[in-house]
Design brief:
This protein is α+β, with helices and mostly antiparallel strands. The chain has one domain. It has 4 helices and 5 strands; from the N terminus they run βββαααββα. Strands 1, 2, 3, 4 and 5 form a 5-stranded antiparallel beta sheet that branches. It starts with 7 loop residues before the first strand and ends with a helix.
Length: about 130
């Protein structure tokens, strides 16, 4: 007897660091993915120090990670103010992927369907960030 797994609609965006916003050059440093129906959201970050050096980043890897960890805090609902934890995952995702002019931005959100959210997240992270 074959069992079928339920498919889930998800959205993801690549988290980017722009060493100099005016140049519009970026380094992919993370991934955020959300599934509204499952109330699932995940963020993972990885900053490659050699890429920062190649772009002559004004910030160190530690400084970029400190700023980027805000994405994780919002996704997890653990911001200092605590207001984000009361928001549904889709609202946190929309807030994080809104267009910004700062040195940390996201790509436009992209949709997909999968029956394994964690495995798909890992695949996307490896493809776009590592």
């Amino acid at each position: 007897m074959q069992t079928t797994q339920e498919n889930h609609l998800y959205e993801y965006a690549v988290i980017r660091y722009l060493p100099r916003v005016e140049r519009d050059e970026f380094i992919n440093i993370g991934l955020i993915m959300m599934c509204k129906r499952q109330r699932w959201i995940k963020v993972h970050l990885s900053v490659d120090e050699s890429r920062l050096t190649a772009f002559r980043s004004p910030f160190s890897k530690e400084e970029v990670m400190r700023q980027a960890n805000f994405f994780k805090a919002v996704a997890d609902g653990t911001t200092e103010s605590g207001t984000m934890k009361d928001l549904p995952v889709e609202e946190r995702f929309r807030w994080l992927t809104a267009v910004k002019s700062s040195c940390l931005q996201t790509s436009r959100p992209h949709p997909g369907i999968t029956n394994d959210l964690d495995n798909k997240f890992t695949t996307l992270f490896e493809e776009y960030v590592l």
